[in-house]
Structure formats: C-alpha cells, structure tokens
C-alpha cells in the first residue's frame, strides 16, 4: 500500500515532469518562430531583389533566363526550410519521448516494488496470483517495447522518405532549370 508521502512525492514528480515537457514544447515553438522570422526576412529581401531584376529586364529572353535562374534556388530553399522544420519537430519529439520513457521506467519500477511487497506479505497459496500479476506486467512491458520499436521504425522511414522527396524535388527543379536555359538559348 502506498503511503501519503509516496503519493505526494509521485504527484510532485509528475508536476515537475509536466512543466519540463511544457518547457521543451515551448523551446520547439520558439525555434519554429525564429526560423519563420528568419525565412520571412530573407524572403522579403529576395522579393525586393527579384522585383528590381524583373523591372530591369529588357526582353522576353532575359525574363526567361531570370525565371530559370530563380527556380532551382527556390526549390533548394523550400527543401531546406522543410528539413529545418522536421529537425525541430524531431528533436522536440525525441525530448518528449525520452521523458516519457523515463517516467514509464520509474512507474514500472515502483509498481514492481509494490507487487514484490504484496507478494512477500501475501497469504500462503497466493503464489499463482502473484505469478499471474508479474506475467501480466512482463507482457505489458513487452508490448510497450514492441510499440516503441515500431514507432521508431516508422519515424526512420518517414525521415528517409522526406530526404528522398527533398532530393527528388531539388533534382526536378534543377532539370527544369537546365531545360529552360536550353530552350531560351
């Protein structure tokens, strides 16, 4: 049986974990806001440069050349932005996962201590019930590990797909830029 002090300590630990996770979430949001501000500033400056370049174009061929020169860098910048957003989200998710795993391990340890204490104080003949509880806990732990591994594999596949998609988009933009240059020439 848990004492009031143990319950209070558990609640205190849970509140500390909650605030720690909230801080991690806010750090992730701050990084996203900083990234978006940086992208907005850069985009504004580039828009001014592009507008000036468009206004100084003298003929259609120059306009096509200008458009072509802007296509690949735009695709690369979009890919880089998406990669930064993914990295921020992945890092924040990893922090949350790490904290959740620590909480789960601590709760599991405490629960097993309660089960062991109950087993020591259990009346004679209850060995089967204690074994059943321990077996259920072991099964739950195995299920958690399986889900965790599956989630990790899914995250790895998602990251590989994002990388492949980014590379494909940049290559397509590059190919289109080359074709446009050839057509303009």
Summarize the structure.
By secondary structure, the protein is an all-alpha fold.
Could you describe the 3D structure shown?
InterPro entries: Phasin, Phasin_subfam-1. It is a single chain. The chain has 185 residues and is mainly alpha-helical. It has 3 helices and no strands. 93% of the residues lie in helices and 0% in strands. Helix 1 packs antiparallel against helix 2 and helix 2 packs antiparallel against helix 3. The longest helix is centred in the middle third of the chain and has 62 residues. The mean pLDDT is 82.
Keywords:
185 residues; mainly alpha; elongated
Number of helices: 3
Helix content: over 70%
Structure class: mainly alpha
Kindly report the oligomeric state of this protein: single chain
The N- to C-terminal Cα distance equals 84 Å
Shape type = elongated
What is the CA-based Rg, rounded? 28 Å
The tally of beta strands, per DSSP, is 0
Share in β-strands: under 5%
List low-pLDDT spans. Answer: none
Give the rounded overall mean pLDDT.
82
Q: Which sheet architecture does the biggest sheet show? A: none
- What is the H/E order? HHH
Domain Phasin: 5-104
Protein name: Phasin family protein
InterPro entries: Phasin, Phasin_subfam-1
Tell me the layout of helices and strands.
Layout: H1 4-55, H2 60-121, H3 127-184
Helix pairs in contact: 1-2, 2-3
């Amino acid at each position: 049986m848990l004492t009031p002090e143990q319950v209070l300590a558990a609640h205190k630990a849970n509140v500390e974990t909650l605030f720690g996770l909230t801080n991690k979430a806010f750090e992730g949001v701050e990084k996203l806001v900083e990234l978006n501000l940086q992208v907005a500033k850069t985009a504004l400056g580039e828009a001014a440069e592009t507008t000036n370049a468009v206004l100084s174009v003298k003929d259609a061929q120059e306009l096509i050349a200008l458009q072509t020169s802007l296509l690949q860098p735009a695709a690369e910048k979009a890919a880089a932005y998406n990669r930064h957003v993914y990295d921020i989200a992945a890092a924040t998710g990893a922090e949350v996962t790490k904290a959740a795993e620590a909480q789960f391990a601590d709760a599991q340890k405490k629960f097993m201590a309660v089960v062991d204490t109950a087993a020591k104080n259990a009346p004679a003949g209850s060995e089967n019930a204690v074994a059943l509880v321990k077996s259920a806990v072991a099964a739950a732990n195995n299920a958690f590990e399986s889900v965790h591994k599956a989630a990790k594999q899914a995250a790895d596949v998602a990251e590989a797909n994002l990388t492949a998609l980014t590379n494909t988009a940049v290559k397509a933009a590059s190919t289109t830029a080359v074709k446009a240059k050839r057509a303009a020439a």
